[in-house]
Amino acid sequence: MAQLSEYLRACRARVSAEELGLPAVGRRRVPGLRREELASLAGVSVDYIVRLEQGRVRSASPSVLLSLADALRLQPDERDYLLRLADEAAVSGRSARATPKGQQVSSATRVLLDGLVNVPALLLGRRMDVLAWNRLGAALFTDFGALPPRQRNHIWLAFLDPRVRGLYADWAKVAQECVAYLRMDAARYPDDPGLAQLVGELSLRDEDFGAWWSGHRVRAQRQGRKRFHHPVAGDLELDFQVLDIRGGSDQSLLVYTAEPGSHSAEALAFLTSWSTGQASESKPSRPERSRSPESRA
Predict the structure, then answer these.
(1) pTM for the structure as a whole
(2) Which domain holds residue 154?
């Protein structure tokens, strides 16, 4: 129940009484709602809120959690995360959870990636590991095949690789979103040793990551837009979509596209031509491009 308790405390601290139309009576020693206020809004006892935030409740019903979510004004992704944490806590109380299995890339997915010639694409697994990629995906970000397997991770590169970090025109925004994505993923496999190692390393080596991770913001990866400063293609503004791979274990396809006729589309076409020329000169080995980074698992 520890993660659930921490998340509820963090959510309560983010909501102000004024925001919910409550009278701001007296001095507040800590930011956010008082437990009494949250209990009144959610229709539960103050004692229950105390025990829940202290991890002394063995299980919480979905109806109570949804009442708390309504009171805290949680967004759909945050509600899903809250329910998932409660479900994982209940499972943990009953029996030991299975260790996540190794992440494998199917031959059909590799063929799909290779067929996406004009769009950068990455195959992401648990904890945002980069399991496979196409030629243009490597040209946009980095030569994944030249990296040690443990560094082939989207969020590790965004924080700790200066070249990848420098690609993002809005690095702080992108980085905070990545932390929120990782938080969402963490609820699915709270006992994943690879995730614990990744979070530990990033927390030690980057103060921003540690602060944002402690903030308990969550968000599901779906779609959006990112701006890049690319050393070869120049400035690009690309839309991204995250597509689930059916039949794949926690795998998704991250695809970037440019608006037709835009400067970014021209820049992306130039990068495609450049990467094709680079590939003709170096002739990288195909198996290396799709090797799975399982050193953390």
Answers:
(1) 0.82
(2) 107-289
